[in-house]
Amino acid sequence: MKFADLGLSDELLKAVSDAGYEEPTAIQAEAIPTVLMMRDLIGIAQTGTGKTASFVLPMIDVLANGRRRALMPRSLILEPTRELAAQVAENFEKYGANHDLKMALLIGGVQMGDQIKALNDGVDVLIATPGRLMDLFERGKILLNGCDLLVIDEADRMLDMGFIPDIEFICEKLPTPRQTLLFSATMPGPIANLAKKFLSNPKRIEVSRAASTNDNITAFKIPVKTREKRETLRWLLRNDLVETAIIFANRKTTVREVNKSLQSHGFASGEIHGDMDQSSRIAELNRFKSGEINILVASDVAARGLDVKGVSHVFNFDTPWHPDDYVHRIGRTGRAGNLGRAFTFVSDEDAEAMANVEKLTGNPVAVFGKKDVRVELPKAKAKAEPKAQAKAEPEQQREAEPAEEEAPRKARRERPERKASEERKPREDRPARQRDRQDDEPVPAGEWNGPQPSFLGVSAI
Ligand code: AMP
After folding, report:
1. Probe ligand 1: pick from 56, 307, 399, max atoms within 8 Å of CB?
2. pLDDT tens, per residue, the chain with 461 residues
3. Whose CA is nearest to atom 15 of ligand 1?
4. Are residues 251 and 328 in the same domain?
């Protein structure tokens, strides 16, 4: 299947080839013609499958003809978090480079003035988080009755964040008939009900049931005592061929503490959580994207849907309380054909949450053991769609993105120096120091001949 077979305009085909994409992903191949036919759509797809382009690309062609009017956006994309909204906006800019479309981003945490001005000038695409949209709507700064194309993205996350009543309210203010596209990684009851209520005869496209079935992600759980989590994390960061990692924690305080602790051990880490203002969050994210830091400690809300290329590892410092978050967290790696590894720490306090994760995904997560240490990432399986995304990002495209690929290497090069300074510091965990020195010896991928940390000897929980 080629992009040219999907019915997109020549301008978009050019934008797609400029982006370096060779072939549509599974969701794109199915969703793009459906959206161009103006049908409603339910897309069950996790992030990393190319789902953003699956609605942004055809929307650009659908909106190409038509007139903007003040205060009345022609289309609306709802996103659960500011970061995701900003990311979709970036996609619009990238793919819409050859079109004359105006876009506005309505997100909390930034000045409202510019947003209101953009609305007054008239926009074709409004990308918003529900909170800020409701706010402006209630102040009479926005009219929704000209908006006949709606996208509800990451619907299951909207549910987790309590946005469903807002979404129902917004849907009721939009005109009928209209075209509605709903995307969700999972389909819990309330989302199915929302779809039933607000979509009309939708086409249903499912590209992958759960992230755990994504063949590009190797996932493990590690039974560990709460007080040993930090040490275990450091050990894995040093011994599992980590290039770039996102570490998730359930609480903001843990995010801060883990980041501080990693920095004090010489790692190039940063943090992102809901207590930070928007500009600091973006700045931190940019440091991560540029490779200045190669480890980002994050809370769920802040990291939702982050699209950072080449994240080799995800660590769940805590097992997430909501099993859906597990799917989203580990979906930060193994994106668009790349390979990734995901580790979830399971202390006694996490055991119930892990049981819920395994119930949701229908798969027990393998316990990390000695045989799994330092394995070279296996090659992506070029399997038939929908599950395999191996085709989505061929080698040529990876080569075409030196800026993103360069970054992790830069951060890696700095590591030996940090390790040296770390050994000078007094440390609470002396046994780990012993290991640090041995870790400096090169160990061939696929085998481990160093000392064995206690967690490797723990049996399955
Ligand atoms: P998403 O699922 O929308 O978060 O997209 C995940 C990643 O896949 C993004 O980095 C996109 O730039 C990339 N991507 C989207 N479509 C394609 C494609 N057809 N080929 C290669 N990469 C793609």
Report:
1. 307
2. 899 999 999 999 999 998 888 889 889 999 999 999 999 999 998 777 889 999 999 999 999 988 899 999 999 999 998 888 988 999 999 999 989 999 999 998 777 888 889 999 999 999 999 999 999 999 999 999 999 999 999 999 899 889 999 999 999 999 999 999 999 988 889 999 999 999 999 999 988 644 445 678 888 999 999 999 999 999 999 988 888 999 999 999 999 999 999 999 999 999 998 888 878 888 898 899 899 999 999 998 666 656 677 789 999 999 998 887 888 888 888 776 677 899 999 999 999 999 988 877 777 888 887 666 655 544 444 433 333 333 333 333 332 222 222 233 334 333 333 333 333 333 333 333 333 333 333 333 333 333 344 444 333 33
3. 50
4. yes
C-alpha 395/C-alpha 303 separation (Å) is: 27
Instruction: Look up the CATH number of the domain holding residue 336.
Output: 3.40.50.300
Confidence (pTM): 0.58
- CB neighbourhood size of 72 (10 A): 16
Residue reference for tokens 């599950």: 387
Q: Is residue 434 part of a domain?
A: no
Residue 17 belongs to what domain range? 3-206
| Residue at a domain's end among 351, 372, 393 | 372
Establish how many alpha carbons lie within 13 A of residue 299's alpha carbon, considering only the half-sphere containing its beta carbon: 17
Q: Please check whether residues 242 and 368 belong to one and the same domain.
A: yes
Residue 214, SS3 per DSSP: coil
Half-sphere exposure of 252 (CA within 13 A, CB side): 7
Cα of 38 vs centre of ligand 1, distance in Å, is: 23
The answer to whether the CB of 81 falls within 8 A of the CB of 306 is no
Asked whether residue 221 falls in the same domain as residue 81, the answer is no
Quick one: 263 and 336 in the same domain? yes
Residues 162 and 71 in one domain: yes
Tell me, yes or no, whether 191 and 241 share the same domain.
Answer: no
The number of the ligand 1 atom at minimal distance from the alpha carbon of 24 is: 19
Q: Let me know if residue 364 belongs to a domain.
A: yes
